[in-house]
Task: structure prediction
Amino acid sequence: MTPVPRRPRRAGDLVRVLVGLVVVGHGLVHLIGVVPQAAEAPIPDPGTAGRALWLLAALAVVAAGVGLVAGRRRWWYVGAPAVVVSLAAVLTAWPAAAAGTVANAVLAVAVVHGWLAEGPRSRRERYRRHQSAVIAEAPDPAEPIAEADLALLPPLVAGYLRRAGAVGRPRAAAFRAVLSGRIRSAPGAPWMAFVAEQVNTVGAHVTRWFRMDATMLGLPVDVLHVYDDGVATMSAAACSAIRVARMSGAEAGHAETVTVLNDVCVLAPWALVGLPVDWEPVDDHRVRARYTCGQHQVSAVLVFDDAGDLVDFVSDDRARIDGASSERLTWSTPVGERRELGAGRVPTVGSAWWHAQEGAYPYIEMRIHDVAAIGAGEGSGDRPGSRLSARGRS
Result:
């Protein structure tokens, strides 16, 4: 499985390292409770049991600090009990060791942030659980796509699928994509670097989970899009704690249905076989697709070059949502630089544009690092009692 690219360094990384070093230093200070006479420490001799407590606190706090400096995902599993043990040690020498509570407060704040960023309720961990469920529940391989399956498609689309290597490819139940790039909220807004991954299921149960790790003003921003059979939500939080954006409701579901269709056309064209799409040829280079999922029906025009490759996807059914307001605008995603990836020959660079009254502008520029098929067959793990179905609707 292709790993998500390493994101650029940001101010939060320096803060994490500095806090981690403070925690390591705090842990080493606990050693004065192990040999108070040798250190000439201003605390009373805690006795044999007390020395053991101070040694345990030293080891736990230093381990937590090292994990924080190294950026270990679950360092807070050690950090949380380290706070408790350290506080217990400090209380045995109160008030002489009262200053240790300040360092413990810093460690406690870092632990809370670690839990928010990587804990079981975090956006990152929810995404990982869903992705694992998709992989675990992907059905067995089915019949590969045959030339006869392309007969019902418009010639432009059938030719595109041939160029993408769809013929002979198993009917995958899901796919995963790894991306990186930059994003902004408005034409004059600063660009934010990001790395991202997504996992989509196709077939009877359509889901799209998209997780982005972005950087805003040097601080981390966690973003999670969840789409489940026409119902969509999005949430973003700075430093994993301060919500900076949220999206839900019917308009969000409609907009994300356009995105689901775009994902299939760009990232996994083989999944167009059997997708509930009504096709309408427009001219020698364009064809209109009308796609229905849940309560939403959306349409888009697929634009092909002379060679038969998809070069743009244009839709008037996607809204630019800003807080409580939304406005449907023309949305396009020009793509290029194709190469063979895990799921076939697909574009590796692209962007997303809003065509507003004030002029057209790109708000996302990205590079596609990999697209990999997951499983095969027409199902997507949506079986009675399946974990995928339960989590997709949470």
